[in-house]
Specification:
The chain folds into 2 domains: 1-53; 55-93 and 109-214, no CATH class. 65% of the residues lie in helices and 0% in strands. It is built from 8 helices and no strands. The protein has helices spanning 3-8, 10-40, 55-81, 107-111, 113-120, 122-152, 160-163, 167-193. α3 packs antiparallel against α6 and α3 crosses α8 (167-193). The longest helix has 31 residues, at 10-40. 14% of the residues are buried.
Length: 214
């Protein structure tokens, strides 16, 4: 076993395992809940593989991914210009020269010109693009679920575009967006006064509350 690889990539590997474990738990429990609901409505239960195409699964999954990518994308952009005095999550109040470790520069930097300019904004661009993709996935999944429930009640399901005017999809989105922004706000403010030894999200334990940046 390559323990050097595990040590160099331990954080991402553990997060991948936590993600997969949580996703598996969501699938198993969501599949059970959906079949219980179908039986209550007098509909036959679905097979396990069919669950992945159901509106409930698509909506619940992409709804959460959407809020995460929105939060991270906006946070990356907001921290470029905005500051919070004393927060470990903020850049220093005074502009300081960025320290760059020795090593080969990324190829877009070496290429220069347009490639370098695009690369300079690639992180926020990627996160907001992932948000847009997740929003579309949430929209389509939520629309399918809403249409199934409407048809089961004898109503006429709306078109996908008309569904964007329904309160349901925005209720689902905003309840997730507000929780993500609250979580980031909590980290920004709490890191002014509280510490976690050796965490890059925290200032050094001995640092004064006024120190800004980790």
């Amino acid at each position: 076993m390559n323990f050097g690889f595990l040590r160099r990539n331990g954080l991402s590997l553990v997060l991948v395992l936590l993600f997969l474990g949580s996703l598996a738990g969501q699938i198993v429990s969501g599949f059970s809940v959906l079949n219980d609901e179908r039986i209550e409505r007098g509909q036959p239960p679905i097979a396990p593989l069919q669950y992945f195409g159901q509106g409930q699964f698509l909506s619940a999954t992409f709804e959460n991914w959407e809020s995460e990518f929105l939060q991270m994308g906006l946070y990356v952009l907001l921290t470029v210009r905005l500051r919070q005095r004393g927060s470990a999550e903020s850049r220093p109040m005074r502009e300081e020269e960025e320290k760059i470790e020795p090593g080969q520069k990324p190829w877009p930097v070496r290429a220069g010109g347009l490639w370098r300019k695009l690369y300079a904004h690639s992180l926020s661009t990627a996160l907001l693009l992932l948000f847009a993709i997740a929003f579309v996935g949430h929209w389509q999944g939520s629309w399918r679920q809403f249409s199934e429930e409407t048809a089961a009640k004898g109503g006429i399901p709306p078109s996908a575009w008309a569904y964007l005017g329904e309160a349901q999809i925005w209720f689902e989105s905003f309840q997730n967006w507000q929780s993500e922004f609250l979580a980031v706000l909590s980290l920004v403010v709490l890191s002014i006064f509280l510490r976690q030894d050796k965490s890059p999200q925290s200032k050094p334990v001995e640092a004064p509350h006024s120190q800004t940046g980790a």
